[in-house]
Amino acid sequence: MPDPLGPPPSDPRPTEAETAALRDAIAQARAVAETGGMGIVAAVLSGGRVIAMRPNQVEESGDPSRHAEIVAMAAAAQALDRVDLSGATLVTTLQPCEMCLAAMRWAGISRLVFAARQEAVHPKYFQFGGLTLADFHAAADRGFVHLGGILEEEVIDLYADGQE
Amino acid sequence: MPDPLGPPPSDPRPTEAETAALRDAIAQARAVAETGGMGIVAAVLSGGRVIAMRPNQVEESGDPSRHAEIVAMAAAAQALDRVDLSGATLVTTLQPCEMCLAAMRWAGISRLVFAARQEAVHPKYFQFGGLTLADFHAAADRGFVHLGGILEEEVIDLYADGQE
Predict the structure, then answer these.
(1) In chain B, how long is the greatest CA-to-CA distance?
(2) What is the C-alpha R_g of chain A?
(3) CA distance A113 to A95
(4) Which residues of A touch B110 (CB under 8 A)?
(5) From CA A75, how far away is CA B15, in angstroms rounded?
(6) What is the pLDDT of residues B15-24, one digit of tens each?
(7) N vs C: which end of chain A shows fewer Cβ within 10 Å?
């Protein structure tokens, strides 16, 4: 069993490392979108370091679950040789869908930083539109921190009308 | 683009094929549990035929998202050469967690048959215990059918205390 990753940042705002990772993810998402791909990118950080950053890979993998967050967490788990990513931060260009939010919790991640918020984007990015992130937060068996809308203005054009 | 799979069964109860697949999945889950593994098994059916049946593979893959349902849907997508599994039925020994339920919807699956219900099992199998399947059903942007508690008495001992 590897050592724990250490606690996540306690900052009530994104750290410099988290903001820098989000900016890189947005640049990568824009590059993917420009070549006709699904322009959503996620990263896993630990100790201020990016462990993995990955784009959505549903089409490439032929697997409907391979959203950017799922792929980035799988890559981080492989890099760190553990499925328990407690202490890490999940950073993503778009608020995680319900699948990815639950996957984050299965990985033990309790800190989430993202750009575009559900209420600012096309509804196609979510499956249970009647539930908000606040609803999930209230229903969670264990708490987590979510910091949304960070750098949103730098990426919202990709998701506002669902044309990324 | 492959042809559509055709509509799912409209039966208000599980079909014979669905019940048979669930019985096979329960037997496989029990066999996995007896060897110390995570005894949860899921299957994808189409046209009354089992396209894929898979156990949880989180430990084997080192990927925290590789629940039985995720793996079975990925295998079905590969077998059918499509990520859109609309028309298929998802069959599973345990009510899908929030991740797997959303993954089912991303795959376009609108018919779910499962054995052990959330209210009958240990809470560890869910991340957002304050939300029920009825809440997700009410919040879904597109409808789906869920038939739970089928053959529950044949498998509940695995999940009642979370010791499967």
Answers:
(1) 45
(2) 15
(3) 9
(4) none
(5) 39
(6) 999 999 999 9
(7) N
Q: Per residue in A17-50, pLDDT tens?
A: 999 999 999 999 999 999 999 999 999 999 999 9
In angstroms, the separation between the Cα of residue A128 and the nearest Cα of chain B is 4
Structure tokens belonging to residue A63:
């697997």
Q: In this predicted complex, what is the ipTM? A: 0.96
Alpha-carbon gap, residue A125 to A67, rounded angstroms: 11
* Beta strand A89-94 pairing with A49-55: unpaired
**Selected catalytic residue, list B18, B34, B60, B69:** B69
Query: Is the Cβ pair A98, B102 closer than 8 Å?
Result: yes
Q: Say how far apart CA B12 and CA B41 lie, in whole Å.
A: 23
CA of B129 to nearest chain A CA: how many angstroms apart?
Answer: 6
Q: Which helix (H) or strand (E) holds A73?
A: helix A68-80
pTM reported for the whole predicted model: 0.96
Residues 6+ apart with CB under 8 A from B64: A73, A74, A77, A83, A84, A85, A103, A106, A107, B58
Q: Is B69 a catalytic residue?
A: yes
Test A77 with B63 for CB contact under 8 angstroms: yes
Catalytic site residue from A16, A18, A60, A69: A69
Distances (CA, A) of B56 to A9, B61, B72: 32, 10, 9
Q: Which of B59, B62, B128 sits opposite A139 (nearest CB)?
A: B128
